[in-house]
Amino acid sequence: MISCEKASIICNKKQYKEATLLEQIKLGFHLLYCKTCVSFSKKNTKLTMLCDKANLQCLSEKEKEILKEKIDQNI
Questions:
Q1: This prediction's pTM
Q2: Phi and psi torsions of 63, nearest 5°
Q3: Rounded to 5 degrees, what are φ and ψ at 59?
Q4: pLDDT tens figures, 15-63
Q5: CA–CA separation, 32 and 36 (whole Å)
Q6: Is 26 exposed, middle or buried, given 0-12, 13-18 or 19+ CB atoms closer than 10 A?
């Protein structure tokens, strides 16, 4: 069996479709007996769904660099 720490890592990987089939099976067995990780998994799924729904966007590398320069000029 896997630890809760390992289960949370696999759960996070699963959210981004990066978990292998073996990892998903191990997670499934862990979730059969660990209510805490079941709760974590449900909350993690909900958070991912909300982030997708919010249509969050990141700054490009160029935009980040411009922002850094502006911050440096004001310090």
A1: 0.68
A2: -65, -40
A3: -70, 145
A4: 888 999 999 999 999 999 999 999 999 999 999 889 889 988 889 999 9
A5: 11
A6: middle
